[in-house]
């Protein structure tokens, strides 16, 4: 037979079990951190002393100035119409006429007595002539009359202007042509000016390049010539020696601006005027006589280039282009031995002028 259960005893046991479980949960919640505690447990809160109880908005609820929607086009037009029609300017006059079509100068000066006194005389005379209150000297660039009456169609104006231009051209052509000719005089082939140059490079530059060439390698000589011209262009202006000036050309500070002209001035300055020929038997016996012989422009330049190339071989630069470029700058400044060689040849030629009569003349 099963034992009997008292209801009062079971009620007391259930209440005791409920109290023990509540104490155990409280002890466990104290040991755990705050975020792991039961949300139903009472939590102490620190209240601000101020009375501001406003809650901060979340980032999604915040509104920025750029998030405001733009007004509708009709609303904007209505606002502009209200400003133009109702608002007044500082002097009490409506602002719409001044903004729309400009305010006449006469009306402005009527409100400014001091400005009316100092108005230009031309405007005063024009203001006196215009008795009908015309709007002269308006501050607006737009016309006050949108529809101009008595205006010819645009096509008729264009046709008239074109006819006038054709008539002027015909009159000028008739005045230029000789009498009795209907068309222009034909141009002969010798009188035509063409841009078809026969030579790509300057004559001086081409001659210098050909003398730089070794073993028939023209491309390498042209590359060396470009290095030389670039050195002359980027180098500082030469300090010209007054005793050995450069022939022709612009002043020294402007020479690097045109390297080809710079090179031409250097070559022409040291080019000899003649060469010395050794002739035997003209003075009797087998003695050689020094006779000067004049040179043309190309021969003079060739002699000067040869002297410069010979003098550049004595320099210690690694590349040929650098040696020649430095020698050219030395010639421009009067420091090169090419000047002494030219002076020596001129002295010999001057002393040998007496032998010109002994030399046989060529027929």
From TrEMBL:
Stated name of the protein: Small ribosomal subunit protein uS7m
Principal location: mitochondrion
Question: What are the start and end residues of every segment in region (Disordered)?
Answer: 37-71, 84-105, 126-150
Q: What does this protein do?
A: Component of the mitochondrial ribosome (mitoribosome), a dedicated translation machinery responsible for the synthesis of mitochondrial genome-encoded proteins, including at least some of the essential transmembrane subunits of the mitochondrial respiratory chain. The mitoribosomes are attached to the mitochondrial inner membrane and translation products are cotranslationally integrated into the membrane.
Which GO BP terms apply?
translation
Q: Does the keyword Protein transport apply?
A: no
Q: Which PANTHER family match?
A: RIBOSOMAL PROTEIN S7
Keywords associated with the record:
Mitochondrion, Ribonucleoprotein, Ribosomal protein
Could you name the domain of life of the organism this protein comes from? Eukaryota
Composition bias (Polar residues) maps to 46-55, 133-142
Natural source organism: Penicillium cataractarum
How is this protein annotated for GO cellular component?
mitochondrion; ribonucleoprotein complex; ribosome
**Localization (cell):** Mitochondrion
Q: Which InterPro entries match?
A: Ribosomal_uS7, Ribosomal_uS7_dom, Ribosomal_uS7_dom_sf, Ribosomal_uS7m_fungi
Residue ranges of domain Small ribosomal subunit protein uS7 in the record:
194-351
Q: Which family does it belong to?
A: Belongs to the universal ribosomal protein uS7 family.
Is Ribosomal protein one of the keywords UniProt gives this record?
Answer: yes
């Amino acid at each position: 037979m099963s034992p009997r259960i008292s209801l009062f005893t079971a009620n007391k046991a259930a209440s005791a079990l409920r109290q023990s479980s509540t104490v155990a949960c409280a002890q466990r919640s104290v040991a755990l951190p705050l975020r792991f505690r039961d949300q139903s447990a009472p939590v102490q809160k620190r209240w601000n002393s101020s009375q501001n109880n406003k809650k901060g908005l979340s980032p999604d609820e915040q509104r920025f100035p750029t998030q405001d929607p733009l007004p509708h086009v009709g609303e904007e037009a209505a606002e502009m119409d209200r400003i133009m029609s109702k608002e007044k300017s500082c002097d009490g006059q409506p602002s719409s006429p001044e903004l729309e079509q400009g305010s006449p100068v006469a009306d402005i000066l009527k409100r400014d007595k001091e400005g009316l006194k100092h108005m230009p005389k031309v405007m005063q005379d024009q203001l006196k002539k215009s008795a009908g209150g015309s709007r002269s000297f308006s501050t607006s660039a737009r016309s006050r009359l949108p529809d101009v009456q008595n205006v010819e169609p645009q096509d008729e104006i264009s046709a008239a202007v074109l006819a006038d231009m054709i008539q002027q051209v015909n009159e000028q052509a008739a005045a230029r042509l000789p009498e009795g000719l209907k068309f222009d005089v034909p141009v002969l082939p010798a009188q035509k000016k063409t841009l078809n140059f026969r030579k790509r490079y300057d004559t001086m530059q081409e001659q210098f390049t050909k003398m730089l060439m070794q073993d028939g390698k023209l491309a390498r000589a042209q590359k060396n010539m470009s290095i030389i011209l670039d050195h002359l262009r980027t180098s500082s202006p030469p300090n010209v020696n007054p005793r050995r000036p450069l022939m022709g050309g612009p002043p020294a500070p402007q020479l690097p601006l045109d390297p080809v002209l710079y090179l031409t001035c250097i070559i022409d300055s040291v080019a000899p005027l003649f060469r010395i020929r050794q002739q035997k038997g003209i003075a009797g016996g087998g003695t050689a006589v020094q006779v000067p012989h004049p040179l043309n422009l190309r021969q003079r330049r060739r002699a000067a280039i040869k002297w410069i190339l010979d003098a550049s071989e004595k320099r210690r630069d690694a590349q040929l282009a650098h040696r020649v470029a430095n020698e050219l700058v030395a010639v421009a400044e009067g420091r090169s031995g090419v000047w002494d060689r030219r002076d020596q040849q001129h002295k010999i030629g001057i002393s040998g002028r007496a032998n010109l009569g002994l030399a046989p003349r060529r027929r």
